Amino acid sequence: MKSGPARAVAFLCGVYVIAGILSGALASQAASHQAVIAWRWAAWLVSAIAFGAHIVYEQVRLRTSPKITALHVSLAAGLGALGLAIAANVHARAVSPHQHSLILVLSLAIWPVMVALPAFVVALVTAILFARVRRSR
């Protein structure tokens, strides 16, 4: 992977991790259930904007094929999910060091796959449509 796409993947992976951790921290301090939901929606919104911006960046700036676009975008999303799984495991160890569940350990493998596979499909379809619209102009 060239440096432009690699930097984009690393940057957006960081965006996903920071959005997840920050919104979780803010949600835990929320005064009402509505505020908790609002912080969760905020994380989803930031992630959706980052996901879309990554597709546009790959297609417009880097001019990658739809398959490569989908690969890079899903890699960033999957690595972001891995980062959140790592953060969840670290948090669980800090909160209760003697009760670390198997499912949390499995999240290190499950979350990235659970996120990256649908992200690849969505990014591929979006990039194909984006490329068709761009060519028709």
Give a quick set of tags describing it.
globular; single chain; 88% helix; 137 residues; 0% strand; mainly alpha
Helices and strands in order:
Elements: H1 3-28, H2 33-61, H3 66-95, H4 102-136
Helix pairs in contact: 1-2, 1-3, 2-3, 2-4, 3-4
Compact description:
This protein is mostly helical and 137 residues long. Helix content is 88%, strand content 0%.
Describe the structure.
With 137 residues, the protein is mainly alpha-helical. It is 88% helix and 0% strand. The radius of gyration is 17 Å and the shape is globular. It starts with a helix and ends with a helix.
Mass-distribution shape:
globular
Please indicate the percent range of residues in DSSP E strands (runs of 2 or more).
Answer: under 5%
Order of secondary-structure elements: HHHH
The major beta sheet can be summarized as: none
- The total count of helices amounts to 4
Our count of domains comes out at: 1
Oligomeric state of this protein: single chain
Structural class: mainly alpha
